[in-house]
Design goal:
The structure is a homodimer.
Chain A: H1 2-22, H2 31-41, H3 48-58, H4 64-85, E1 95-96, E2 99-100, H5 102-105, H6 108-127, H7 135-149, H8 154-163, H9 171-196, H10 201-228, H11 231-234, H12 240-243, H13 249-253, H14 255-272, H15 281-292
Helix pairs in contact in A: 1-3, 1-4, 2-6, 3-4, 3-9, 4-6, 4-9, 7-9, 8-9, 9-10, 10-14, 10-15, 14-15
């Protein structure tokens, strides 16, 4: 895993520098907005989604200059979703990445606006002329990111998650929920490489399947960590899903089968990368890491 | 005004039909999200911003098929901003367009997600391949819409507005605030015509200046209506700015000067349209209507 560890460290450093550069400062009375955007985005985080963007793009030798704005954009969309999910009206969380959540550090209105503005900035970035040189690529990336983040993607999954508090979901429904809530952004992150390289067909399909396997494995692992992890390791509250009566993969599959299923998904994810040869080794490593992680 | 009235009626009908078609339905557990998006967007409204998009595009004979998705997108962004602004943590309003606000009709979490999803859907639409045939135009429209809606545009203006509750703003600060909060989307709506027609230079500049004049006139009129209008006419609460101790144009300029200034801005807006000849008559009419309206 030390190859992955080093690659993650280097990638995270670059992504953090890019995010720092992309989110403006302000000295006007809107300062609080930018402070909150910067606070939530630069508070740390695994930067997994940008890593997937950069490394799926690297399969096709896409220059970093062309892929970095998309990598930063996906992290902004992810951060916006956390900021809004943490709000009192939603999951009501006080702690995120080991720090006070945005509305705790600032206030609710600022957290709503900071989330809104991060989402908007992501689209500004991904469509900007100083990113990918080909306008058709920028338009397609925008369209796909919006589809992944919106009502038929991440936001829809979050709505299903809220609805789940009052109803007993079966396995199919939980898979559908997670395909939106977590899966859609994972899928976009991996497809991004093929779109940025203007490749379609089998290569794009393989990345999509890789992403779907990895996304589901990620979520099953999240459910396992919510049950077995500690608040100190995770930097956020644990056991909340169980307390809210939400059906998790562990409830529906049992502990052992959930672990087995996550392992199987990782094997499947690694298998579909076969056509890319050695070039996909980091993507294989990250699939293994996703189920082995402690936070 | 009957020429404008008829044009607005026809345009509103088309825009409403487009919005109805663009916002999906759902029968899954995320149904509530789409119901809320549809409720807030299809509740009526003057559809001024889409009107500006369609009529600035008509100056250059841009086909309706190419401009309608942008017109619908701008209305979605406007609606998202209203849904979030109405939230208890923000302006805490119960009534909008004469109906219960989104969080009153549904709940806060749903209103947050519905706003998020409307914003996201706007970008999905404006970047979609079945809109404008030229990818460079779709990418530029996306980039400009995001700039207008984000932290350095509408959302930043809203942050300034929230900050204004605790501080006495001078005229410059209020103009800066409104340039973001209302002006940025007006500007985008009018620039849209030139971008969709791939025109730059003097024509685009004229539309930008028209938009800036009209946007400011619109906001001064809003302040006058907040003071002089009735809840029944406006379909929303009145006198809230004064109650919150926010400086309005009327406070800073006085009633008479505010009226005079709005009238002057309309004259200026009409004057910059000169190069477009008769083709801009509806844009002239709408500038006059913006200060004459009762809601």
């Amino acid at each position: 895993m030390s190859r992955l560890k080093e690659a993650l460290r280097v990638s995270t450093e670059k992504v953090n520098a890019a995010l720092d550069g992309y989110i403006p400062h302000s000295t006007d009375t809107d300062r609080r907005l930018f402070d909150a955007m910067r606070y939530s985005t630069l508070a740390g985080g695994k930067r997994l989604r940008p890593f997937l963007v950069l490394n799926s793009a690297a399969l096709f030798d896409v220059p970093l200059d062309w892929s970095m704005s998309s990598a930063a954009a996906i992290e902004m969309v992810h951060t916006y979703s956390l900021v809004h999910d943490d709000l009192p009206a939603m999951d009501d969380d006080d702690l995120r990445r080991g720090q006070p959540t945005c509305h705790k550090k600032f206030d609710e209105a600022t957290a709503i606006l900071a989330g809104d503005s991060l989402l908007t900035l992501a689209f500004e970035l991904i469509a900007a002329p100083d990113g990918h040189p080909e306008p058709a690529v920028r338009a397609e990336m925008t369209h796909r990111l919006a589809t992944a983040a919106g009502g038929r993607g991440m936001a829809g999954g979050q709505m299903m998650d809220l609805a789940a508090e009052d109803s007993a979901l079966d396995l199919d429904a939980v898979i559908r929920l997670q395909r939106g809530k977590t899966g859609a952004l994972f899928r976009f992150s991996c497809e991004a490489g093929a779109i940025l390289a203007q490749r379609g067909g089998a290569e794009r399909d393989a990345l999509t399947r890789y992403a779907d396997h990895v996304g589901l494995a990620f979520q099953i692992t999240d459910d396992l960590l919510d049950l077995e992890g500690t608040e100190a390791d995770l930097g956020k509250a644990v056991g909340k899903d169980a307390a809210a009566g939400k059906a998790t993969f562990v409830d529906l599959l049992g502990l052992e089968e959930a672990r087995r299923r996550a392992g199987q998904l990782v094997d499947d994810a690694i298998a579909v990368l076969q056509p890319f040869g050695d070039k996909a080794d980091l993507l294989r490593d990250v699939a293994r890491y996703i189920v082995a992680r402690k936070n």
